[in-house]
Design goal:
This protein has about 400 residues and is mostly helical. The protein has 15 helices and four strands. The protein is elongated, with a radius of gyration of 26 Å.
Amino acid sequence: MPTADDAVDSGLLSPATAGADALVSDSAIRLAMVEVEVEYLRALETVGIAPAGLAQRMAQAEPPASVGLARRSVLGGNPVIPLLADLRAELPTDVTAWLHKGATSQDILDTALMLTAHRARAVVLERLTETAGSLARLADGHRTTVAAARTLTQHSTPTTWGLRFATWLGTVLDARDDLAALDLPAQLGGASGTLASLVALSDGPTAARMPALFAAQLGLAEYHPWHTSRAPVTRLGDALVSVTGALGVIAANVATLSRTEIAEVAEPAAHGRGASSAMPQKQNPVLSVLIRSAALRAPGLSSTLHLCAATAVDERPDGAWHAEWPTLRELLRLALGASTLAAELTSGLTVDTERVAADLALSGDDILAERAVLVGVTGQPADYLGLSDALIDAAIERARS
């Protein structure tokens, strides 16, 4: 029988994220909270509030194991409170005298989550860049692979696989650019968002310097206290949904176009991947399936973040803040998983040009019906591929820039 100490979620039911989510694990977030406390103490030293050298000593100390941190978080409603107890039990008293002084739990946890997001974002952006590079190569290599375009599931006019890849490329680049442009801020407001404790420890001008200094030391953006102003969270959530959505479009197309009766594309092969437990003849497009599962899960999580933001009352929300933590973490996890899978999918995706030609031939001359109508109206021959090459070139150039 399972015990209370068993991990709730090791990825058993989330294969889309398994192996790609270490950056957002409980352990990673716990260590991020410790790092935030260290840098907050360093900021106190820098402005002359705390004695020099304490942060360095704290940084060199082994972080406490914090056994049972999750269960002990129930007592205070957040994990910062028991973590501070563990730190105070391990550190010298001259360090603990200044530990967390002037800050509040929300400052530490919000900042730790943004620090975690900052690190996860770097990996997601790297994977998106890899995916974009693969799509650019595919677009260039298949600019003359004429295929049947499909609108509302039916053959419409000729297109090329190069243009199809270029379209996917543009969507991935849009999502990548939106995610890269986000400011991920540190949080520092004190008990009620007024910095009152820091003013009491020093003076107004010194306290006013602290948020920017604290953010800079962590590599995060400066922002006004946002205890109940949750735009940084909802913007991040929306950008992550754009990432999973862009990758989900690719996955859905690959899954459809690799169907047995279409078979225009195939995922990269790997030993044991895509096998069926009951039908040995099958080769399932599991990379696409898993990416699509992430894309389907993400939008609901983003809507939860917006709901939490809309109910962030008083000077610290009563439950809405708490509901954000696992929701944001899961979105980061899905983006990490989907982007890792997409980089692999696109790096080895192949096009069966013979099947593409055979599928195109199914519609016969009807595939040129639009062209025939235009010739009848204008009396001029029509280029049925239009600006395909120019559009491909533009997408490739954007990927390179």
